[in-house]
Amino acid sequence: MADPIDLTGMFGEGWCVTLTRGDVFEALSGMEVDPADCRPVPTLADAAGLTWPVPGVLLVAREIGAGLTLVLEFDGSTGWVGADPDVLAVLSATGGMACSIYKNPNREELSYAADADLVTGLDPATFRRWGSAPERFDDTLRAAGFPGPDGDGGSSDILGLPPSQRAVAAMTVLTGTALTAAMFDGPWAAGPSAH
After folding, report:
1. Which InterPro entries match (predicted)?
2. Beta-bridge partner residues of 15
């Protein structure tokens, strides 16, 4: 596995990235953004300067493949929208999946939902797992070099990464989609979440 993208290097100490099945407006609607409030923006810098008459957390989204949408947020002051288990349940309710990773200054976490159920959560610092079936991806993660849920084993390639990059590597394993820098180039659809 190639080194995963360094989202902390790109975005600093606070961000949430969500991958989900469906188009941009399905993803944003599932994250409580009114499609009527969405605006197209060419770059993330352009999105940062937008204001809306309604309050909410800014979410930006773009399709990164057929039926796959990337959603990004930078304001976790009220909790990360993409990390909320209820939001992940909505995004994955129609037979799809939703996977999010977030970074606060002292914490990273991955959540994976399928069929409206939070299947697996992963702490990339300790490798602790939770969810309705936390063991579901143990074999796949172990094959990719991750330690077991008790922190046993693991390859030096994974163990040598900072936790935020481990989370990106785990997202790749769980979703089959490797994030690349080009996926964050835009254009984007931006809107405020009422969540």
Report:
1. DUF6461
2. 103
